Amino acid sequence: MASEIFERDRHVTFLQMMYQLLPSPYQSQEINRLTLAYFVISGLDLLAAPDRLVDKEAVAKWVLSLQAHPRSQSELNNGQFYGFYGSRSAQFPSEDNDNGALLSRSVGNLASTYCAVAILKIIGYDLSSIDSESILTSMRNLQQSDGSFMPIHTGAETDLRFIYCAVAICHMLGNWSGMDKEKAKAYIINCQSYDGGFGLTPGSESHGGATYCSVTSLRLMGFIEEDILSKDAESSIINVPLLLDWCLQKQAADGGFQGRPNKPSDTCYAFWIGSVLKVLGGHKFIDKKALHGFLLTCQSEYGGFSKFPGDFPDLYHSYYGFTAFSLLEEPGLKPLCVELGMSAIAAIGI
Ligand SMILES: [Zn+2]
Known about the structure:
Elements: H1 8-21, H2 33-46, H3 56-64, H4 110-122, H5 132-139, H6 160-173, H7 181-190, H8 208-220, H9 240-249, H10 269-280, H11 288-297, H12 315-327, E1 336-337, E2 342-343, H13 344-348
Antiparallel strand pairs: 1-2
Helix pairs in contact: 1-2, 2-4, 2-12, 4-6, 6-8, 8-10, 9-10, 10-12
């Protein structure tokens, strides 16, 4: 039977279990281990779990070991990205099964690098001591002439998600030399659709995740103000009233948020779209009671959250379930920095 309350202690146990499995070098099949580690470590932080549950020194050592370093200063401009690998296995050249070609060298990618820097920030590691010059200098090679970013140095699609990763990395490192902000801004503005939401690329359908990446990127770069609704929304570089409408229409009859019209409500959009509303200052228009009720139907009796009511929990939806409850000001959860997707205290760096 579904619980009527947010089961904080069960969620801590759920994450603790995940944490114990994570830093093991024997489970390197999963290429997105840094992303999974980010969910676990940031989740424990958001849930205000006891400090002793995370061995910060071991985590920092593991994360730092995943950074790609150039062999020489001149290599920094060879077009490769010297960020973080997703996991140990991604550090080695791999056989491409489709054509048997051996990739010359595997590379770091923007999403893993965002997660790596976020983890280090959350555990309070001194970010000024990491090799940020290699990250930022080589990251410039990933930005395209239209302002978008590729996640790796070659043969990948570009879209808003990777602009967000680049923006968040620069913001956390306190150094914007890794990107051209004006070009990124122009690309993002082009992604706002006729209905007010944002698509992943100019002209594509509005989507909750893309809308989150757009609005938080603009906010982190300083192009839009906080609580824009109470200020001069008219003069904003984006169409704020239309965006507000689009966001509010995504709260469905069951109380949850959908990522696109006519899709079922899904736990994670309570964070993606809830965060946009928070930045705009429109969070007060959410039917909080109904959202609270929907989210509880996705809470697993073993801890964690599922995508849809009654499904098995997964780490991704668990994490965004916690962030959604933090946005609802649930007691026992730390307040959230929606722009960085971590606790406000971790974001400030105390
Ligand atoms: Zn989802």
